[in-house]
Amino acid sequence: MEEGTVTLFAEKLSNLILQEASVFGEVEGQIKLLRNELELMGLFLRDVDSKRVYEERVKAWVNQLRSATHEAEDVIDEFILKMDHRKRRLNTLKFLPTCVGMVDKLPFIHELDSRVKDINAKIGAIMANRSKYGLEDLTASSSSTADQAVSHKEKRAPVVEESDVVEIIDGAKKVKQMLMMKVETSTRSVVSIVGMGGLGKTTLAKNVYNQRDVQGPFDCKAWVYVSQEFRAREILLAIALQVMPLSDEEKKEMGEDELGKKLFGYLGEKKYLVVMDDVWSSEVWSRLQPHFPDQAKDGSIVLITTRNKEIALHATYSEEFIYELRHMNDVESWQLFLKKAFRGTDCDKMQRLASCYRGVRRLIVDTKEKTKQSWEKVLASIEWHLDQGPDSCMRILALSYNDLPFYLKSCFLYCGIFPEDSEIDAWDLIKLWMAEGFIQRRGKERLEDIAEEYMHELIHRSLIQVADRRLNGRVKSCRMHDLLRELAVKQAKDANFFKVHENMDSTFPISIRRLVIHQNLINHDISQCLHNSSSQLRTLVSFSGTIGKKSWGSLQEHIKLLTVLNLSEKEVGGHVLPRDIGQLIHLKFLCIKGFRSHVKLPSSIGGLVNLQSLDLGGNDCNIPHSIWNLKKLRHLECWNCKISSQSQINKCVNGYLGVEQLTNLQTLALKGGSWLEGDDLGKLIQLRSLELSKCSTSYLKTEFFESIAKLTVLEILNLSFTEGHTMKTLVNRLGSVWEKKNVTIDHHNKTLLPGLMPFSHHAYLYELSLNGMLEKLPKEIEFYPPKLLGLQLWRCKLRDDPMMILEKLPSLRILELWFNAYTGKKMVCSSGGFLQLERLKLFYLNELVELIVERGAMSSLKTLEIWRCDKMEKLPHGLLEQTNLEKLSLLGSSCHKSIKEIEEVGGEYWDKLRKIMC
After folding, report:
1. In this predicted model, what pLDDT tens digit does every residue of 742-759 receive, in sequence order?
2. Predicted pLDDT of residue 250
3. What are the φ/ψ torsions at residue 889 (nearest 5 degrees)?
4. Once rounded to an integer, what is the mean pLDDT over residues 336-347?
5. Residue 711, pLDDT above cutoff 70
6. Do 839 and 814 form a contact (C-beta atoms < 8 A)?
7. Beta partners for 637?
8. What 3-state class would DSSP assign to 32?
9. pLDDT at residue number 153
10. I need a surface site. Which of 204, 289, 293, 413 has the fewest CB within 10 A?
């Protein structure tokens, strides 16, 4: 862990020496000496880490090194901050002679020289203590066979994995029997699974929940994670979102009682199965029980998993319907260990390690496949953990953490900042790792790609789990098992890596580098817990609430070296950032998540010269044009925000500012505006994701579409044209653009998308969304991205059946048609079409009367959703012939007549329909 801290700071110093040599001046020699000492420290710490040295003297010595490193980093960053303020001040006094500037700089140089010399002396003394206190002998006597961590791993393409479920055969059979018995009762019932953390409660529940014959009798199903940090409204919302449609306003504004009543009313007419995973208190069931109708359709069931049998008895009333998971015996543990660690190959001397797991399935499943030698090393150190408490899960889990290479330890611990049972957005996590400096450069590789490999490695080691995947197989979100999160929080506390606000004692001097705020504690004066801190705050993360003007004022002295500012707003309100936020020149990550709240960014935002990521979520904001100054910006994700125009006076004084200056951009999400004029967008050739909303036709000129054509590494493209503007008028104007590309123009049929050029060169584009009026889709398949997996069409008002064209796309897996994307009455999916399609969504197609699915069409279809297609009275012809169909979701009067007819007749069609409808 400390090795990573030292190594990252040494790398930072090397970069500063190259980039800021003129700034350091005569102090450069001391800076290089500090860098050299840090590099030696890093090598020694790597040796300590690889040999698993846990002696208390070593831990105390490592703590001293960490403290000295943090002090050195503060000194360097404070100097850079002061020099930046000096530079800004001198820029306003350009008439002063150069000699005045040099004199003004001298006090800063002398102060830096003195402080760096002191730190070098301190580090020298700490390093000398290795011999004085016998630390070198301790490390030399440790096992020398440790595998060295290698930072460069072979790149692996992401794949969509199948669930690797542990075979808890007896438990699955018994729980299933309990459920089937309850299905026959006339009231709502509760079944519980009880066992200690790590035994496999969630695995067992999922095993049962995912079985088709279990799901069959129920009209709707939901799975929710509860956890210790229980919030009734969030649990009710999570259930409601899985069983019933909710508008954006309902999701945002409905309180617990109102939401509970709506859910109660909906479930009252359904036979439902709800799984509540990881319940920690009896209060959970007491609060939620009133919202589950007791007299719903016969046989509704709630399945609970918990560590506490008292909670199970409180909800279930009878031990007859409580299944208690037992520990596996040594033979079972050994068999599972062999399967997970050695893929069934025997390995002598390892059975002792398997028995150390005490039958905790989770610990064995989390085992990473290793060589025999690697496991012997783990076995050699396990006794140390067991001596501290042989029944301690944390000490067993600590082996997985200690086995991590140094560059992954910080990444793993950082996952602990998120609230328990959070579904962590993988993209946000990657950007945070980058901003914190955890990602080591490897030649010309993209930092994002390296970070993604780090994530894959943590997943392969089972330290984090995939929660959801994107269309292309990459990780969309992940989770952290509660035991592993506890481990991360404990290790972070020991290493002073981050601190959680509610767990801190502000009466003692402390050193806080990263502060995490859960719940609504941000309304307290945060500065109270920082006033005794011996170092500057680098990271401030809040998962609830806002920071008012008063709090900003009290925080100012503590956040001047801030690197990460992450505010997640869950309530309607707004954020006003301080006017001088531009002075936070070390800030790399600024995120204010929310939905349609107003965020006010001051013009000083243009001073955040090191900013890599700005994410305002769905908040509304008028972003100052000075944002174009931020040349290190890689991710600008503000899809509901617009950029203010640069005045002519400002252009004359400061020069033209435009999007083309942000050549490092990987992600861009903004409202359309005058910044789209010209061909500047086409210069952002590193763009992977582009989302433009509310684009007026006045900006959609030839240069705009030529720019889109140049962005050949795009993976995601979302274009939304201003409502009410037809693209018809653009065809003649843009015909010449197409002719340059040797594409045949049909001016009479007007088959073109709104001026877009073919996507044939966009080899990486897998997700495309178009929102705006079109007349016809291009018939030429070559027009479309060759590897398109997902397509959304919104408000296109297509007159001709789009299926005859789209069914020929060879890789299409998801197709969504929204809000009169098609205005015809009939759609036909012909035999042999849509061979890869897995999900089809038809939402609010007001004129659609009939959907025909010919035999052999959509053979891979798993999910069909038809919402508010109210003129469509009958189910799609041929639908029930689809053997892979698992889910049919209907809303409004869609197919109502057909459903009633099938129900009256009964038979196998009705049996199948009941199983897939939700």
Report:
1. 332 233 333 334 566 788
2. 86
3. -115, 125
4. 56
5. yes
6. yes
7. 615, 669
8. helix
9. 37
10. 289
Residue 592, CA distances (Å) to 131, 228, 521, 542, 554 in order: 50, 26, 17, 10, 20
Check pLDDT > 70 for residue 535.
no
Beta-strand runs (E) in 547-702: 564-568, 574-576, 589-593, 595-600, 613-615, 618-623, 635-637, 641-643, 667-671, 689-695
How far is the C-alpha of 863 from the C-alpha of 814, rounded, in Å? 10
Beta bridge partner(s), residue 51: none
pLDDT tens by residue, 675-692: 998 889 999 999 999 999
HEC assignment per residue over 689-753? EEEEEEECHHHCCHHHHHHHHHCCCCCEEEEEECCCCECCCHHHHHHHHHHHCCCCCCCCCCCCC
Radius of gyration of the chain from Cα atoms?
30
- Over range 765-771, report the average pLDDT: 95
Structure-token pair, residue 339: 């399967």
Cβ atoms within 10 Å of 556's Cβ, excluding its own: 14
413 and 433 Cβ atoms separated by less than 8 Å: no
Element (H, E) at 378: helix 372-387
* CA 709 – CA 761 distance, rounded (Å): 8
Q: Supply the pLDDT for residue 588.
A: 97
Lowest pLDDT segment from 245-249, 500-504, 724-728, 760-764: 724-728
Average pLDDT over residues 418-428: 92
Contact criterion met (CB below 8 Å) for 510 and 429: no
Residue 632's pLDDT is what? 96
Alpha carbons within 13 A on the beta-carbon side of 35? 16
Q: Determine the average pLDDT of the residues in 652-658.
A: 84
| Spatial separation of the C-alpha atoms in residues 301 and 189, rounded to whole Å | 5
Q: What tokens were used for 216? A: 């069959």
Is-contact 173 187, C-beta < 8 A? no
* Other CB atoms within 10 Å distance of the CB of residue 109: 17
What distance in Å separates the CA atoms of residue 588 and residue 592, rounded to the nearest whole number? 14
The answer to whether residue 157 scores a pLDDT higher than 60 is no
Tell whether the torsion through CA atoms of 763, 765, 770 and 776 is positive or negative.
Answer: positive
Q: Percent of the chain having pLDDT more than 90? A: 34
Whole-number Cα distances in Å, 815 to 794, 812, 866: 11, 7, 12
Tokens 């959070």 appear where?
422
User: Average pLDDT in the 267-290 region?
Assistant: 90
Mean pLDDT for 160-187 is 70
Q: How many CB atoms lie within 10 A of CB 770?
A: 21
Helices (H) and strands (E) in the chain — how many of each?
30, 30
Residues sharing a CB contact under 8 Å with residue 486, sequence separation 6 or more, in sequence order: 394
Token look-up 């002063």 returns 96
3-state class of 103 per DSSP?
helix
pLDDT at 712 over 90: yes
328 pLDDT more than 60: yes
Q: How far apart are CA 394 and CA 483, in angstroms?
A: 7
Write the pLDDT tens digit of every residue in 76-101. Answer: 888 888 888 777 776 655 544 444 44
- Determine the Cα angle at 525 with ends 523 and 530, to 5°: 135
Q: Is 255 exposed, middle or buried (0-12, 13-18, 19+ CB in 10 A)?
A: exposed
CA distance 851 to 827: 5
Whether the pLDDT of residue 373 is over 70: the answer is no
Q: Report the 10 Å Cβ neighbour count for 760.
A: 16
The residue type found at 903 is E
User: How are strands ordered across the β-sheet holding 641-643?
Assistant: 574-576, 595-600, 618-623, 641-643
Handedness of CA 699, 704, 708, 709 (dihedral sign): positive
Percent of the chain beyond pLDDT 70? Answer: 74
Q: H/E element holding 398?
A: helix 393-402
